[in-house]
DNA sequence: TGTTAGCACTCACTTCCCTCGAGTGCTAAC
DNA sequence: GTTAGCACTCGAGGGAAGTGAGTGCTAACA
């Protein structure tokens, strides 16, 4: 796509900026005043006409102003937008509300989601750190009742996850403890999903009869480790935006958010891109065709271990959101780095 | 409050029934037709006029029909309502969707909340079983990193809860294990909150130097055991009701639900009443003044261990909701009884 | 050749007004 | 005590007219 000439760019920017603020179609007069380019409305009109033809602007009806198309937002995000810096107030807000003394990962994640949603006034979501990329440090099994036990997996980074698993009823608590020790010894330092197959034979050699049971238990554990949890906050923020004043539309959005499955998918899909923006129909989900999703990854120990993001109307303040996400990502990474040493 | 005469009751019932269905003010003609009492609209009008004077009905404006007041709903719930039975279809639905083979309490709770919300089309909430009323069977401590450990509390009923706690950095994993064994031995069979004080001295006697640390750990554990988790499902259902078509009102409701604190309070407050109904301003929360909350307790081992409920507009189908809650409560109790043996 | 003033035109939105009808309360008759 | 009859109320729905923000086109200007 060959880019537009500078003047068209600036006009488009003025339109998008204005529309993001007001949600109302933007007219040539407004652009002429707002953008200090010293051009008359008539000139702007000509340019706007061109931009419409090129697919960057849309007209709700003949005598209304123009609104940006998805294509315009895309261009805006990629090439036009002032990549806004946080104001001092905003940076301050984050510092004050991200309590670095918290000692539990889950709590940090919840706080982050809250701050993200409060600052942007959109719906925020944070994927809790993914264990699959980490190395096992310890697996504990705690007998809960006949036939069930809780497995707690601790990784080298200090992230934990627990799962209820089934165990043979015949196992005594001592057996369970023995098995946990054995598993820990074998898996210590490995990634769970990679290690299971390679480790099973040696387990089988050491405790022949119970090997099948152990194998099933490991499968249970692996399955639940692959489940990703996502913290979603501020879903009701969407009702602040006029494009969702229609109850049916709002309901659809909220139901989709509540189910969480799509958001989870987006977050996991974006787990290897530092920052991603999906605008409108770029979400391959018809329920989200009027939304944009911006995500960013966060790290610990130099590796991506999770993703967080924001969902809002396509008319989103991309600059601000991206700046906040960037800052929050590094804050969160710092906290986790310290927390998980 | 002296009750109304039977005819007034039946008329009020007809009005409430109709209003619950339609959300539109009910006129005398409608009542005359709907209630097969063989009375003319004029007669009904006289009675309705009385009911208005008595505070059971309200008139949005002179030439509209009447709508029930809170007082009317209260009377309706206490004395008038047909305590509806579930249809076979509904009972069936519950049986099919409450998977009795699930082996984890949390999963059962989530399922129950989903079923409750789907069947009523209101917002449902289920308090996870409260540990405070149960006896400890085992407390495990799993070292996570220097200074932190995960505590897993298992009760005699098989309900579990875990918490991240701080531990002295000097403790070795072996020390931690020893402490866990000690705590378990001392607390086994007791309720945590009751036992701590009485048990601490003996702990102090056995491991003098680390007793302070252990005491702090127990406090951490107790604190997190008292935190109640609540599963909320179907918040967006509220948008199906015309009384919440106003975005600002919907937003207020959803924000309140999302924060969860009020719902949690209601559920814990209601934990010793088999079934409770709060109508409108009976909720001492201005944000909930147009909502009703119906709750029911569920049991395991013959004791109340949790609460669940439904939030919706005051114009709620109380009969249906209460029938569903009753049935679900006993289903859930059954499942938990089996699950927790 | 690009820019701009001027102008006719479009069209959603608001306001006003009218009608319609569901509903009420009152009165008088049964 | 019940009901038919009737005048009255008032919100909802539906044009009609006016308003104004905005457009596209044309012609003139630098």
Structural commentary:
The structure is a homodimer of 341-residue chains. Chain A is of the alpha+beta class and 341 residues long. Helix content of chain A is 48%, strand content 19%. Chain A has twelve helices and ten strands. Chain A has helices at 6-22, 28-34, 41-53, 70-80, 88-97, 105-120, 173-187, 192-206, 211-226, 247-259, 261-269, 318-340, and strands at residues 57-58, 67-68, 123-127, 136-145, 148-155, 160-166, 230-233, 275-279, 291-300, 303-313. A five-stranded antiparallel β-sheet of chain A has the order 7-3-10-9-8, sandwiched between helices. In chain A, β5 (148-155) and β6 (160-166) form a beta hairpin. In chain A, α5 (88-97) packs antiparallel against α6 and α5 packs parallel to α12. The longest helix of chain A is centred in the C-terminal third of the chain and has 23 residues, at 318-340. The radius of gyration of chain A is 25 Å and the shape is elongated. The mean pLDDT of chain A is 91. Chain A binds chain B through residues 103-104, 106-107, 138, 140, 142-148, 150, 152, 154, 158, 160, 162, 164, 166, 233-236, 239-240, 244-245, 247-248, 250-251, 254-255, 258, 340-341, and chain B through 103-104, 106, 138, 140, 142-148, 150, 152, 154, 158, 160, 162, 164, 166, 233-236, 239-240, 244-245, 247-248, 250-251, 254-255, 258, 340-341. Chain A binds a DNA duplex (30 and 30 nucleotides) through residues 25, 27-29, 39-43, 45-46, 48-49, 59-65.
